[in-house]
Write a structure and sequence with these properties.
With about 70 residues, the chain is of the alpha+beta class. Helix content is about 30%, strand content about 15%. The chain has a two-stranded antiparallel ribbon with strand order 1-2. Strand 1 and strand 2 form a beta hairpin. The longest helix is centred in the middle third of the chain and has 10 residues.
Length: about 70
């Protein structure tokens, strides 16, 4: 949203397809500055939810852990 294209990546269509195929999603921020950490995470979560996701995943010691919202 903050780059010249001003759009979500991945695009909503790709997220919907991934959700239909059972591919889990991780919502993160590509922060290159301290004030960008956690920027738009709520917006990303809402986009994932709108595309059909009912939760996200996180990783701990290379193990995937489901996280609801």
């Amino acid at each position: 949203w903050h780059m010249p294209a001003a759009e979500a990546y991945p695009a909503p269509g790709l997220l919907r397809d991934a959700c239909r195929r059972g591919i889990p999603v991780v919502v993160t921020a590509d922060a290159h500055q301290p004030d960008h950490v956690a920027r738009d995470l709520a917006r990303g979560r809402e986009l994932a939810r709108a595309c059909g996701y009912r939760g996200t995943v996180r990783f701990e010691r290379r193990r995937r852990i489901a996280v609801g919202w």
